[in-house]
Amino acid sequence: MKISTLSKVILLVAMLAGCSTADSRVAGDSVASAAHDVTVSNVRESVDSGMQQKAPAPVIDLSSWSRYEQSVVDISARLSEDEKLEFEQSLEGAIWKIALTEEDFDWEDKVSFLSNKTVKEQLAGKTGLQIIEQAKTPGEARVIDLSSLSNYKASVLKMRYELPENKGKEFFAAMDVVLRNLESSGAIDGLSSPEQFLVNEEVRKALAGKTAEQIIDRAKQLQK
User: Fold this and answer.
1) Is 74:43 a contact under the CB 8 Å cutoff?
2) What is the pTM of this model?
3) Cα angle vertex 144, ends 166, 86, to 5°?
4) Taking residues 3-20, what's their average pLDDT?
């Protein structure tokens, strides 16, 4: 059975703790292995289309985990195919943004997730279209922080998941281009530790204080 993106989004919280940049690339696979019991098609078959026309738009319900799951499925079932994909991507981005902003929070604890103040502010009572519009609202431009390994990792992940889905993927691809260029140019030859990488002059020129757009622009220049 093919696991829907929606199922992955619903269960994203369960695998957030301790996720690294590399981990994020395979997060979908990790979630997919557990997400086998929720599918949009089942919900579509069980809802009368005439009732959908009249009923008010469903909203995210954080009163319990099962109601949260069901509310996300209900919202998706009421959206067009394009809107559904955008909603799933926007919800995933919102969850990652909260996860990477909150400190000392156990994201494997579903009760804590449902009761978290920021989660409630960002998700509770929102329709699918509101989640989509919320994701489009520009925030303060983040930059890459090389002050420590943990700050570097967190800043890159925050930049990735605060961007719209396509732009976030473009940023990750651009980071790969820039890092490969540093490697092929010999700029990071001989580095034996992450700490040496962070203080390397060429690395700092390429990454430190750069926004996602600057990294994307630099990657385009390198690929010409």
Assistant:
1) yes
2) 0.52
3) 20
4) 47
Count of all residues that appear for the chain in the document: 224
Q: What does each C-alpha distance from 179 to 54, 183, 185, 212 come to in angstroms? A: 53, 6, 10, 14
- What does the buried/exposed string (b/e) look like for 114-141 if buried means 16 or more CB atoms within 10 Å of the residue's CB? bebeebeebbeebbbbbbbeebeeeeee
Query: Among 94-103, 158-167, 168-177, where is mean pLDDT lowest?
Result: 94-103
Long-range contacts of 149-154, Cβ-Cβ distance < 8 Å, separation of 24 or more: 149/194, 149/195, 149/198, 152/198, 153/20, 153/21, 154/100
Query: For residue 71, which of 131, 2, 137 has the smallest C-alpha distance?
Result: 131
How many C-beta atoms surround the C-beta of residue 3 within 10 A?
18
Q: Which segments of the chain does DSSP mark as H helices, in order?
A: 5-10, 21-25, 27-32, 40-46, 49-54, 65-77, 81-101, 110-115, 117-123, 128-136, 149-162, 165-184, 194-199, 201-207, 212-222
List the one residue out of 17, 15, 21 whose CA is nearest residue 151.
21
Q: In this predicted structure, what is the pLDDT of residue 30?
A: 39
When the pLDDT of each residue in the chain is averaged and rounded to a whole number, the result is 75
Q: What is the mean pLDDT of residues 141-147?
A: 84
Rounded CA-CA distance 169/149 in Å is 22
